[in-house]
Amino acid sequence: MKNLVLITLTMLFALFSCNDKNMNQPDPMSFTSDFEADSDGWIGDFADYPAGEEAFYELTFERDTLPGPLEQNQWALKLSGNNHSDDLFMFVKKKVTGLEPNTVYYTTFTVEFASNIPDGMAGVGGSPGESVYIKVGGAPLEPKKMIEDNNHYRMNIDKANQNEDGENMKVIGDFSNDTEEAVYTLKTVTNENPFGISTDENGTLWVIVGTESGFEATTTIYYNSVTVEFY
């Protein structure tokens, strides 16, 4: 009889533990975009600049091959802009579906990009490397630029400015290439501490990767791959 009670209690404990796990820990999910076939659903855009000044800011987003001396048969997402506003934000975003509805997922980003800016380089307004911050994040709503009353484009999510963390985006590195050479080099950055991103009622969220610039001249970045893990 004691054995029967013990077995029953063990089964009930396992059942409730499983249910608690399902309630609090969604099934993990991850993806990697390497852009070899296409842009894999990533969309590029820009914010923190005056509306109508796209040509003056030399804003460019395209899928392109990596620059030399890197492997020029590899594809990447290229963003480029001339920062006249001391705060230009260049970003790519992607819609993610098939997650649990109304659920907070702990999220880790691993971003590999190409930079031609050596460590410690000085520049106008700030360093072209250490003053250009790599940010990642996400939200249940689509991150978009919006026109404010002063006719400037701002984001509809809280990304904060430059080297500050916002509610929806965190700083995970900078644009310097970790060398002393002004040549394009691949660099990988990741967030050491996972942070939460909520899904909407349909199990959808958006992820976003971008650069927040305090360098008042041109930055050109190539995103070679992005891996996002949800758990």
TrEMBL record:
The name this protein goes by in its record: Lipoprotein
Organism in which the protein naturally occurs: Mariniphaga sediminis
